[in-house]
Amino acid sequence: MTAPYSPVYPLVAPGRQTPRVLSIAGSDPSGGAGIQADLKSIAAHGGYGMAAITALTAQNTVRVSAVHVPPVEFLRQQLDAISNDIEIDAVKIGMLGDAAVIDEVRSWLEKVRPAVVVLDPVMVATSGDRLLRESAEKALRSLLPLADLLTPNLPELAVLLGEPEAPDWASALDQGKRLAAEYGNTVLVKGGHLAGSGCPDALVNTSGLLRQDVVEIAGPRIDTRNSHGTGCSLSSALATVQVMTGDWEASLREVKPWLLEALRHSGTLDVGHGSGPVHHFHHQQVLRPGDFAATLWEQARAELDAIHGLGFIDGLQTGSLPEAAFSYYLAQDAIYLNGYSRVLARASALAPTEDEQLFWAKGSRQCLEVESELHRNWLSTRDVSVTTGPVTKSYVDHLLACSASGSYAVVLAAILPCYWLYAEVGQQLHGSYVEAGSPADHAYADWLKTYADEAFAEATRTAIKLTDAAALAASPTDRAAMVEAFAQSCRYETAFFDAPRMFS
Ligand SMILES: Nc1ncnc2c1ncn2[C@@H]1O[C@H](COP(=O)(O)OP(=O)(O)OP(=O)(O)O)[C@@H](O)[C@H]1O
Ligand SMILES: Cc1ncc(COP(=O)(O)O)c(N)n1
Predict the structure, then answer these.
(1) How far is CA 431 from CA 22, 170, 437, in A?
(2) Which fold has domain 20-284?
(3) What is the mean pLDDT of residues 303-320?
(4) Which ligand 1 atom lies nearest to the CA of residue 233?
(5) Overall fold of domain 291-503
(6) What is the ipTM, given to two decimal places?
(7) Which whole number is the average pLDDT over 253-279?
(8) Measuring from each residue's beta carbon to the nearest atom of ligand 2, which residues come in under 6 Å?
(9) How far is the CA of 348 from the centre of ligand 2 (A)?
(10) How far is CA 459 from CA 281, 453, 463, 486, in A?
């Protein structure tokens, strides 16, 4: 008899695609903590969120002004309504309020036995207001054995052990080990309440469930006061991801970087005057027209500062630039324009509309016209080498590589700095020449006059607009490649202006 076929490697990833996650917690009407944070966090990790409300709070980012705990019979009705109909993959428990609520949740857990239970033993809000009656702390301890993962912050860890709060990370880990051993589950020790530049978290389990008793995951401390709801968001995210990975360490490794970004982007939400919420959906931000160009401009501006600090630009402005340096620059520019023209032609070939196709084709043609103009009017009268310089070669190679392997959007991002930085530098140089009274005896007067070309400024505005529009239509991966291609071209622009320094 042949053995039933079983694949060597699972063809389908383990775990559910859309975990059904229930939050049993309090309501925060300001949306930063409690069930509101849990539902956002569950959704942000691809779960289907549900919520049974234990308590209603009146709170905002500054304080909790009132707490109302509805009759526990109603909590039982909520929990039964859910579990009588829906299979629950994971439960996250947050604010419980009082001992009667705890007892109700315990008897429901004993009956339903969900596969994943994460208990965040919420006691005191970030604002300092109590969310669990002191008299209920003993009852809370009786709930701990029913959880797979406990996520106390340092003051809560201390209360659960009946000890003073850990003064440092080493003692916190020690307390975590004792709590894990006492209740036979995994404890997440969180570094949020400690000082220092790092903010570590550690999973602790003393019964061999993890690869070692303490698995620490380091992380930076984000400089923000917006930490309202981090504990809620973290515990519900872990419950969700655990259904998919079945491994606490893998889950924490996925969730922690997300939480860090959620903290980093919290300021953009601009919610409240106190400790604001984190940005749960920072990774799904909608890009509006102009946003991407604004991001690129931040990079370009930094590069412009570098360009304006170059001896070449100063020499061109004052007229003190050695003739040999200027000639070298012109010769390299002519070589560059030939390669650049080919890349613009590639953009034209990839363009999604006829207008765009025409725009880039026109640009490509103009490059060749400017190249021959450089030879006719400037280079024919000078004794200058026509060898391709190293910077010119690298810059053109970078552009050709982007045009060979990149999408339309990436090609545009690589092309753009030549328009944008050149237009900005040109405007500035021309402006200071005019400000100085347009001196006719300036060594580079004829050249500086060419910089005031409004047609080129207009073409630059169009190139920026088209790149921004291409970014809106691009995938996040392509957008990241655009940023990289743009940054690289910016660096080459600076290097290009700096290359003639060997003649100075
Ligand atoms: N400033 C910060 N920078 C980076 N991570 C942080 C910061 N503050 C908190 N965290 C992280 O947020 C999570 C929650 O940690 P914390 O110790 O603040 O728990 P908590 O007090 O239960 O949260 P809450 O503020 O919601 O009550 C942990 O993963 C912690 O590392
Ligand atoms: C309903 C509810 N649940 C939990 C918290 C704790 O969150 P934080 O400590 O960030 O205030 C809260 N403030 N409100």
Answers:
(1) 64, 62, 10
(2) UDP-N-acetylmuramoyl-L-alanine:D-glutamate ligase (3.40.1190)
(3) 94
(4) 26
(5) Heme Oxygenase; Chain A (1.20.910)
(6) 0.98
(7) 96
(8) 25-28, 33-34, 57, 94-95, 122, 125-126, 131, 228-229, 231-232
(9) 55
(10) 36, 10, 6, 18
